[in-house]
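Q: I'm writing a short methods note and want an example of a predicted protein-small molecule complex. Could you take the sequence and the SMILES for zinc ion and return the bound structure as tokens? Please keep the output block clean; save any remarks for afterwards.
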Amino acid sequence: MCDDTGWKSIEVDGVSRVTRCDCWHQRSFESLLKGARIPRRYMHCELSNFDDHTDSQRRALKLAARLVDQFPVVDKGLLFYGENGVGKTHLAVALMKEAIRRKGARAMFFETRELLKTVRDTYNNQVDETELDVLRPVLEADLLVLDDIGAEKKSEWVEETLGLIVNTRYSERRVTVFTTNLRDSDNTEPNSVALQLGLRIRSRLKEMCEWVEIAGPDTRELGPHPTSEDIARWEATSPASSKNRGRGGLPQKSAGQARAQLKPRERDGRADLKWPGGRAGS
Ligand SMILES: [Zn+2]
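A: Understood, no commentary inside the block.
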């Protein structure tokens, strides 16, 4: 169609013009997709093949599609929270691919723990990359998906590094989509955003994202495309279903430990999250 020039002739109101050829769009999509670092297990994820069994899943899907429609003029990113296997990462990847396809977004996917490990590895002298080499594309991507935030082991360095990413993207008004298993509960709870990520990051996340709870059956346990009978049986029998969860309660021990960690941090009283630079430890 274009003799490999990437441009083709079209006629608009009787006038001949040139426009990008389809092959150019396809190549551009493929190259952006490659740069997005989507793990192979999520490559199939699309908005069109998202399994929505519950109202919260349908709402989350709508918000994901709306973000793509509005991109890049997006007021707030999204933070999907909920239990394992309800489709948080599926939706995040799907909206990212759609934004690449339709809007040519420079997007990037990172599993939070892996990102932190990659940054930490740059402190090793054997590695030529600096932490900024790793972080720059993360800070500058048009659309960043930070998957499973809060699953990493908590430390001051982790909080500072995540704080840098979150704050930079917020102040540059770049769109970020988070997924997390954490809950927005009291900061004495070990599984809370407030405790695991700290109140400062929580408050920033509230400003920069719409928080969207996703509830539904665990498709990792049930397999893809469960029938309503499968879901009913899962609800009744699985220890992970909302009906059965909490029976016997969470171990109180971990809550006590978490509280013991919180105290010194509160006394610390530093005003800002500061980037400590290299070799800050683990
Ligand atoms: Zn062409």
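A: Remarks, as requested: DSSP finds eleven helices and seven strands in the chain. The pocket of zinc ion is lined by residues 1-2, 21, 23 (CB under 6 Å).
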